[in-house]
Amino acid sequence: MKKKILIIGLAVLIAVCGVSTFFHIKNKVESDNNKKMYESVAEEVSATEESTTPTPTKAPVNPYTDNTTVSGGSGNGGASGGSSESYTTNMNPSANPDMVGWIKINDTVINYPVMQTKKIPDYYLNHDFYKNESVYGCPYVQANCDVDAPSDNVIIYAHHMNDGSMFAGLENYRSKDYWSSHKTISFDTLNKKANYDILAVFAVPVDESNKNTFKFYEFVNAYDSEHYSSFISKCKALSFYETGVSAKQGDKLLTLATCEYTNNNGRLVVVAKRTTR
Q: In the record, what terms sit under GO molecular function (predicted)?
């Protein structure tokens, strides 16, 4: 009887180990394939930019400076170097017309195309760049944000993956030491290149029923300067540390959000202000 129980127990153990190994290998293969796919997309975009010499075009109206002409200095994060010329990013969205930009943080794995689908807002939560179903998804812009105008705040979401991909790396921003060597985010649209300086990093729960939770995702365009200042003040008050960066109405913001697990249904949020490039 004992021998029979031992054999059954051993069989169960082997089965459990087999299933565990299967899923481990499956997850590893999916992770590797996802990494290779986005590396391929990144190389394609990089090759396009390197092989195409940007053609300057006069830009008497610059949407990045509230419809004023850039003439020296940086203004509110417009063109720098005293030039009134505008350059496109040379990104080719033909592989997927839902692509609205590219996000990158130097010396991190964050180097991805950014999508937007206004009719199906969370489509890229579970679809990759090529519209295949994927647990990794693809970074995407909140549907009511405008990357071209742009809106006062452009909010980008992506998963916090266990293999460290997508926006999992944002978790490192809990450390001020990490922030001090990764202060800048690059977000290029199809028409403009821009850098953003991080002004606040915080974690909050998402709870629509609780009026006391900070609903960062509701701030897209400010009603007035008071509304804008209130949003910045809340971000700064919640931030893990002081960055020395602030913003006023007219400054354009970029917000990155991903899941975090110190709060129930939590989000780790990185808010940055557009600067020159």
A: hydrolase activity
Q: Using an 8 Å Cβ cutoff, are 257 and 268 in contact? A: yes
Q: Are 145 and 219 in a shared domain?
A: yes
Nearest-CA neighbor of 38 among 164, 214, 177, 148? 164
Examine the pLDDT at 26 and tell me if it is beyond 50.
no
* 3-state DSSP assignment of residue 201: strand
User: What is the rounded distance in angstroms from the CA atom of residue 85 to the CA atom of residue 80?
Assistant: 10
Catalytically annotated residue among 127, 138, 145, 159: 159
pTM of the model as a whole: 0.77
User: Is 127 known to be catalytic?
Assistant: no
Does residue 45 form part of some domain? no
Is residue 248 domain-shared with residue 159, that is, in the same domain?
yes
Q: Which domain holds residue 170?
A: 97-275
Mean pLDDT for 77-103 is 61
Q: Please tell me the total count of domains within the chain.
A: 2
Residue 14: pLDDT band by 50, 70, 90 thresholds? low
Q: Which of 138, 145, 235, 259 is catalytic?
A: 259
The rounded Cα 268 to chain-centroid distance in angstroms is 11
Q: Is residue 27 part of a domain?
A: no
Residue 145 is among the residues annotated as catalytic for this protein: no
Asked if residue 252 lies in contact with residue 195, where contact means CB atoms within 8 angstroms, the answer is: no
